[in-house]
Every structure is written in C-alpha cells, then in structure tokens.
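so ive been stuck on this for like two days lol. basically i have the seq below and the ligand is thiamine diphosphate, smiles is in there too. i just want the complex predicted, nothing fancy, no docking runs or whatever. if the output looks off dont worry ill sanity check it later, just need somthing to start from for the group meeting slides
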Amino acid sequence: MSKPERNIIQIDDLLARDGKCNVLFLNYDNEAFMNTGIQESGGTPPHAATTTGPAGERIPGKVGVKQDLVTPFGFYGTKSTFLATVNPAYPNDLMGKIVEALKSNGGAFIQSYADCMRGWRHASQDAVKVSKLATDCGYWPLYTIRVKDGMPTFSYYRGLEIDKEKFVDYLKSMGRFRHLFRPKFMEKEIDEIIYYTEQRNEKLKGLIKQFGTEKPVDVYRVNRKALEPQKHLLPGHGLCPGCGAGMFLNQMATAAQLVAGTNIIYVNNTSCSEVSTSKDFVTSWTVPWVHHLFESGATIADAISTTYKIMKSKGLYNGEVPYLIHIGGDGSTYDIGFQFLKAALVRTSSFVEMNEYLFNQK
Ligand SMILES: Cc1ncc(C[n+]2csc(CCOP(=O)(O)OP(=O)(O)O)c2C)c(N)n1
C-alpha cells in the first residue's frame, strides 16, 4: 500500500486566517473523577481499577467500555465545527490544533489525553513516557474532524494502529491495571481492552476512508523556539507533579496566547484544574477566569461569547469580542455535563453561525 499523503499545516498560515471561534470547548481526559477521589467515569477504560470500581477477586475493575466521545460530534449536522484529539506528549500537534480551532468559525471541541500519576498509580516522572506510549501503542489516536455545512471530513496524525507489545507495556506501566498481571496473568481481560480499542480504531479508519480527503495525514509545523512562554496561567498552582492536565493547560495556553494575546476568557468546570488553580481565594490565572458547575460551564461560556456579540451588534460594546475557552474534566464532559456541552457546541456551531447579526464578529 502506498504511503498516505501528508497535509503540512504551517502555524503562521493559520494565524493569518480570518476565522474566529465562538467557543472552544476542552476536555482533559484523566479517565476518572479525580479531584473527588478517583471515581469511575464514562472515560474510564475497561478493567481499570477506581475507588468505585475497584479490582476485587470476582470483578477486575471497570465493567463497561470507554465511550467514544469525539466522533459522534461530527454527525450532529452542524454548520461549522472543529473537533480533535490531542496528547501533550505530541506538543506540535496539540498546539497546532488549538490554533486551528481558535481560527475556525463556529464551535470547537478538543479532547486531550491527561495522565494522572495519582489516580493511575505510577511515578510522576513517568508521566511523559506513559503519555507517549498511549498514542504509540494505538490507545490514544490523534485525529481531526472538520465539519462544514453538516458534512464531516476526517484526518489523522498518528496512533491508529495497535502495537500489542507496546499496548501490554502501557497497561503494565500503571498500578490501576496491576491486577491484570499479578497474582496471575489475566489474558482474557487484557485481550478485551485491546479488542475494544481496536474496534474503535477500525471505526475511525473506516470514517477516514469514507469521509477523508486525498491528503488524510495532518502535520502541524510550529517553530517552538519562537514561541513566547504563556502568561495566562502562573506556575504557582496546586496540580500534582507530572500532572497531564497541567502539561495540557500549559501547551494549550501557549497556543491560545499566540492567537488571542490576553483578549480571552476561560470558563472552568469544577475539577482538578479548577480547584488547583483557585486555591485559598488566590487565582493562578492572569486573564479573566470563571468557575462554573458541570451543568452550566459550557452554557456560561457560550452565553459570555454571545452576549459580547449581541452588545457589539447593538453598538453597546466597541472592543474586540474576546476568545472563549471552556475547560472540563472527563467526569463533567462524558457524564454530568454532557447534555449541556452538546447543546452549547451545537449552538455555537450552528445558531450563532447562522445569525447574520452575530456571525464572525471581531
Ligand atoms: C452535579 C455535581 N455532582 C458532584 C459534584 C462533586 N464534584 C466536584 S469535582 C468532581 C469530580 C470531577 O471530575 P472530572 O470532571 O473528571 O475532573 P477531575 O477532577 O478529574 O479533574 C465531583 C464529582 C459536583 N460538583 N457537581
């Protein structure tokens, strides 16, 4: 089979674009409700041990699948939506996708892999190694869906092929899967995790074939040496050493700063990223930041963005409409906040886009 063609995307070309996102919704997926004590979520993979689905003698961790959250968003028939998965172990891809999302009209949703040394039970210095392995073994593929007028186009960067040896190394590297290897090797359960992951990847490959372009591989070119260190989020926060959410937030804010400067508002659902950056009434954020509930964060982000646009169209506000970024963990995204996120994503991707008074205001 011939090698698939690569679509080289220069960050400077994206920055020169005219588009502007209404709201970029972010989910960092650490695969459990972490800040309240490692409870199982819809993002928890099968057979992972959590405090509400512990590995015991009869039940080996989570009973159920890790839900596929991102691909269904490509099929709501929205007008304009940018969707992607990222992993902080691949920073160029991560930052490129944040820039493209913010420079695309409509709504956007990006889901990031977020290692959690505390909940996944491994040494903090292994966080980057574990994160990289996740994509390299096929567990966390990096792909993009660009929706225009109801039609999705699928592309990818890497991580679609399952490497069984690496996959087993990946599982072995974390205490949450230790029960699959000791006291006995649980081949059926290990095979089951690989099987469901492979099924997910097969679906993805089918979608890329069906809804792809001639150049299905996206490669972002970022001159990292020229990047300014981000100043949105100060380093003195309370996230754990090696926290994947922390790595994600740092890279995300670096890219967001490139696009928005300081004209940005963050809305943060209750989560590790929220409690750890707003401790003791002292915020770690230097730009406006709003804490809201699982059920209302996405709605609030849309409301802030839309209110600015309405005020501008009525001549009550003359400045530049700020960029809006909403952040949530997997507990709030897959489970408790899902319907609100879905509704806000559809609104920002369609209603705001199709309203001539609100469309793409600068
Ligand atoms: C409706 C509701 N139920 C429960 C809680 C308590 N609560 C606060 S944070 C949290 C866990 C959040 O998990 P997740 O979204 O995965 O973020 P993480 O802590 O992993 O960063 C829970 C259950 C809440 N705030 N609201």
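Residues 30, 33-36, 41, 270-273, 293-294, 328-332, 336 surround thiamine diphosphate (CB under 6 Å). The longest strand covers residues 21-29.
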